[in-house]
Design a protein that fits this description.
Blueprint: H1 10-24, E1 50-51, E2 54-57, H2 61-72, E3 77-80, H3 89-92, E4 96-97, H4 108-118, H5 120-130, E5 137-138, E6 142-146, H6 149-164, E7 169-173, H7 174-180, E8 190-194, E9 198-200, H8 202-215, E10 219-221, E11 226-230, E12 236-240, E13 244-247, E14 249-252, E15 272-282, E16 291-293, E17 298-301, E18 307-310, H9 324-337, E19 345-356, E20 363-366, E21 373-377, H10 383-398, H11 406-410
Parallel strand pairs: 1-13, 2-3, 2-14, 3-10, 6-16, 14-21
Antiparallel strand pairs: 4-9, 5-9, 6-8, 7-8, 11-12, 12-13, 15-18, 15-19, 16-17, 17-18, 20-21
The chain binds flavin-adenine dinucleotide (FAD).
Flavin-adenine dinucleotide binds at residues 57-63, 80-83, 87-90, 92-96, 225-226, 253-257, 261, 276, 278, 310-311, 352, 354-355, 377, 379-385.
Amino acid sequence: MPCRASPKRPELLNFRLQSIKGARGLCLTEDTASRPAGVFWHSALFSMPLTADVIVIGAGIIGCAVADELSRKGRRVVMLDQRTVAAGATQASAGILAPYIEGHDLTPLLELAARSLTLYDAFVARAREASPAIIDYQRNGTLEIALDAAQSARLRDQEQRIRRAGIACRWLSQAETRDLEPALTEDIDGGFLVETHGSVGASDLSAALVKAATSRGARMLTFAPARRVSRPANTLRVDTDADVFAAPHVVLAAGSWSGQLPVNGIAPIPVRPIRGQLLSLARPTHPIHRVVWGADCYLVPRAAGGILVGATVEDVGFDERATVTGVRDLLDSACELVPGLWGASFERARAGLRPATPDELPIIGLSDRMPGLIYATGHFRNGVLLAPLTAALVAKLVEGDTSDPALRLTRPQRFGEF
Ligand SMILES: Cc1cc2nc3c(=O)[nH]c(=O)nc-3n(C[C@H](O)[C@H](O)[C@H](O)COP(=O)(O)OP(=O)(O)OC[C@H]3O[C@@H](n4cnc5c(N)ncnc54)[C@H](O)[C@@H]3O)c2cc1C
């Protein structure tokens, strides 16, 4: 039975929460005085779990978006992360919001990604309301570059198919492309502009979403790895090293690590890590104005003036290092596209593990085997883009609504008994 704080004993609540903070290190929800009485109650004092409506495991962009959405709907949310906010794939993400690129063509992934893009303005506006931090969000298009005739033919074909689907896009000649982005090499054949695309700073957005959720009473516990999910009775239980949590719903949003977390009686969900390396360059002598894609890399301009260069795609297990080869290859490709980048400053290299599924579609849906468990993982190369749609779908599932057609594409059961 859920155990709630007695409004008559606020000092006891404060005492217990202070000691939880001490045990776990950073706890972003420090403001116990302003929390509505009775929202959370740690009952280790009585050997009972801490209760909530929803426990979200993982504070990458997906967990953060889900926690924000659920807390907006009045749910009591506890977020757990084994590290800090956005320390997984999200911190390495380029944050490109581009459904109509990267060979998506007219696939189910395109359907999900295009729908999520339509939610993005409102998603960022809500996060900005909650946080004074600057979120770098730009919707001024992406430009895919053809370096030779064969690439031009492929991109022109893509442009026609996408335009027929009603998307604002244009094929540009070599001169038109260089008018738009004068820093580009002269050795190009043309460019494909998709005007509605853009980019966002994924780490800042995640932090703002957590701030929004915690301002509504959600709790964010960092350095608190979930060790096991089980369902001993009619409620779900999550064990961490320090505490036990209980809730009717648990959202598994642990990115590449989602298959590593033991879930009692259920096989590991098939998500595996695909490493990506991303570089940050500063003070380029020749700026670019929008996301630019070449054959071997992409470039993302940041509002503060820097440029991101991405990204490698490497099947190397749980190895989160940036490597000499990765950095060299990305620098060579970037400078081939924009020769002026040889004069930029090298700021840093990051690496992250993209959570990949066997069919490259995300896994969003309820478990049949463990009622109340919701998977929200496997977003591979598009987790930032797919975050608002994922949050909306998870919120529907928590409310008992399974009717959204997108859930047919993303159901975990396409991979077996989950
Ligand atoms: C180089 C690179 C570039 C990318 N570019 C783009 C892009 O331009 N656009 C785009 O849309 N996507 C991009 N992606 C993909 C995107 O970053 C991912 O799809 C997205 O970040 C996945 O988010 P997530 O929250 O599922 O996973 P993560 O960000 O990895 O978060 C998972 C979290 O779960 C935590 N965790 C794991 N196990 C546990 C546990 N047992 N208990 C508690 N916490 C746990 C981890 O610490 C981590 O913080 C890129 C990825 C990379 C690597």
